[in-house]
Amino acid sequence: VVARALALVGISVALAGCGRENALEPASPQQHRIVDLFWGMTAGAVIGFALIVFLLWLGWHRRGRADLPGGGGDRRGTTLVVVLGVVVPIVVLSALFVWSDVFVLRATSAPARGTTELTVEVIGHQWWWEARYPGTSAVTANEIHIPAGTRVEVVGTTADVIHSLWVPRLNRKIDVIPGRRNRIVFDATEPGRYRGECYEFCGLQHAHMGLAVVADPPARFRAWLAHNAKDAASPATPQQQHGRQVFLSQACSGCHQIRGTRAHAVVGPDLTHLADRATIAALTLPNRPDSLADWVRDPQHEKPGARMPALPLTEGELNDLLAYLRSLR
Length: 329
Ligand code: CUA
Prior knowledge:
- The protein is α+β, with helices and mostly antiparallel strands.
- The chain contains nine helices and twelve strands.
- The chain has helices at residues 2-16, 29-61, 74-108, 218-228, 238-249, 252-255, 289-297, 299-302, 315-326; strands at 118-125, 128-132, 139-141, 143-147, 152-158, 163-166, 174-176, 182-186, 192-198, 210-216, 279-280, 285-286.
- The chain has a five-stranded mixed β-sheet with strand order 3-2-1-5-8, with no helix packed on it. Strands 4-10-9-6-7 form a five-stranded mixed β-sheet.
- The radius of gyration is 27 Å and the shape is elongated.
- Bound molecules: dinuclear copper ion.
- Dinuclear copper ion binds at residues 124, 127, 163, 198, 200-202, 206, 209.
């Protein structure tokens, strides 16, 4: 039984670290505070549990005897009960309250005005994330760039139902709620790509509502932002030109925006710099020609329930459309 239990624990631990984000590997000062609290509480719980097991064992071991270990009568027994059962819990829980509800809460809650250098608006949609950079015309989806080593204020809202924004290595989660602007700080210590998830059940594709926070070195971030704020490049070849025509004449332009064209709808993700992104469909698929083709051909096969319909395109139209979309660097 012990061997089986150990195997089960081993498998759980192995699967828990299965290539996904580990909240216990902090990548920001805020998450560091949370992880310290977690390990502090775990250590305290282990010590408390060990102490109780020891006392139980001691009670059972000395079950035939009336006196306490080391002598002493009822009075000393009462003192022990008061100290271990009342004084110690009050001290420990008060300390824990101050640590978590004062210090950790303060460090991880909405940033005070003027303590951040950049604001990003993150908007939850069924089932993808939109990111806007106030003061610029940059808009992107699901891959949210921020500068590393910089306190970034993230303002979370939603276009439809309640979602929850959680990037485990950067900070705690915030819900995004209709009519409210919830704020959190992302402050990645090192450049890197940090995966996030929607953490509130929000419909059929809740489980496929991933996002990536890409922390760039500050100079690279500024270059990315300046590039993203630009309009889409004009089609370079006749095929791409026809692809743009397909995009504008078909239902694509009824939902998506490509800046620099007359497509300005905001139902689906902004596609102005689609080819810049590493993934599509909220991190469900890699942004490769074959998976992009599969996605446009039959979105319902990849993400049943997704708001994007399959369009009646001929193979020729589809190829030209894909050539155009792939040119949107
Ligand atoms: Cu959005 Cu779950």
